[in-house]
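User: Hi! I'm working on a homework problem where we have to compare a predicted structure to a textbook description. Could you give me the structure for the chain below?
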Amino acid sequence: MVFINRSAKVVKGGRRFSFSALVVAGDRKGRVGVGLGKGAEVSEAIRKGGDVARRSMERVSLMDTTIPHEIYSTFCGAKILLRPASPGTGVIAGKTVRAVLDAAGVRNVLSKSLGSKNPANVVKATIAALRQLRLREDIYTDRGIPMRKPEPQAVA
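Assistant: Happy to help. Predicted structure tokens:
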């Protein structure tokens, strides 16, 4: 659960509240999805958002506990920069980006959120960035180039 919004409709007897919940779901092994649920109660909105998030889960390319390369992505006014980090760094990110990266299973990454702070757009920009990640092996096979084994380094 990333964000809950309460909206009010003014009726004859007073205010009638409705809730929307932005939910991120993932298996921490490279699959992540996002969903927006709406309902008259908070729990109902969270449940609906979770259902949508689980249905929309998609695979992202990870390299061990980090991402394979630096990526910059935008969605509407939200801009996200993600950089791979060495083991032990942790997830250096704001709460909305952190929720997506934790659900995807990323353990070491540096991020910067630029532009809009709207949680829905920040989450969607992060998902778009993760969707663009590609492993070296995938790029080589797509181009039909054989992978070379790295040559052993001589120790002096």
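For your comparison, note the following. The domain at 3-143 is CATH 3.30.230.10 (Ribosomal Protein S5; domain 2). The radius of gyration is 19 Å. Good luck with the assignment!
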